[in-house]
Design goal:
single chain, 162 residues, alpha+beta, Ubiquitin-like (UB roll), five-stranded mixed beta sheet, four-stranded antiparallel beta sheet, 16% helix, proteasome binding, ubiquitin binding, polyubiquitin modification-dependent protein binding, Ubiquitin-like_domsf
Length: 162
């Protein structure tokens, strides 16, 4: 998106990708709902900022208007990924949320390691996606990981950077 786009344009783009009507979308940043007429630059969004996109609950629901459970967060879209072990000897299928931090993949692999007995480097490892090192503290969405993509495991650790 461009900072000169409006929140409405952002919703239209989400509609194009997800097929959810603009009228049902709620876009929030830092807990505050972003109004359709505002420009993204005025919403204090920086480059690579993450926003929350929710779908308004259908009025045909329980009719009680109770809070909680009524909204579906699109950020929790499930991604089916493949993790390629060191030396490319085995591909492990995993399911993660787009909004999960990459560090969650490490926890998931530890669980699967017990069952599937594949090789995980004892001395530590990091993840590579499209020839870029993945930051454990960033989400899969931030890394632009899509459904069906492959992530590779490499021995060692990442240090330095400022």
């Amino acid at each position: 998106m461009d900072v000169n786009d409006t929140v409405l344009r952002l919703k239209e783009k989400i509609q194009e990708i997800e097929g959810v009507p603009v009228s049902k979308l709620v876009v929030q940043a830092s807990g505050a709902e972003l109004q359709d007429h505002r420009y993204l630059r005025d919403c204090e969004l920086t480059e690579n900022a993450e926003i929350d996109v929710n779908i308004k609950p259908s009025p045909t629901g329980s009719g009680t208007g109770s809070a909680g459970g009524g909204t579906t967060t699109m950020g929790n879209k499930r991604l089916k990924l493949m993790v390629l072990t060191k030396c490319g000897t085995k591909k492990i299928p995993v399911e993660m949320n787009a909004s999960d931090n990459v560090g969650e993949l490490r926890k998931e692999l530890q669980k699967l390691h017990q069952r599937l007995h594949f090789h995980l480097p004892q001395e530590g490892y990091f993840f590579i996606y499209k020839q870029n090192v993945m930051d454990d503290d960033r989400s899969f969405r931030w890394h632009h990981v899509a459904h069906g993509d492959t992530i590779e495991i490499f021995n060692g650790s990442v240090t330095g950077g400022s």
